[in-house]
Amino acid sequence: MGSLRNRGCNNVVKSRPLETAGRSVNLLKLKISRYECSFPILRDNMIRERIQAAQVEAMKARDVQKTATIRLMMAAIKNRDIEARTGKAPADDDTLVVEVLQKMVKQRRESIEMFTQGGRQELADNEAAEVAVIETFLPQQLSEAETLALIEGIKTEVGAASVKDMGKVMALLKERHASALDMSKASGLVKAALS
Question: What CA–CA distance (Å, rounded) separates 127 from 93?
Answer without folding.
Answer: 26
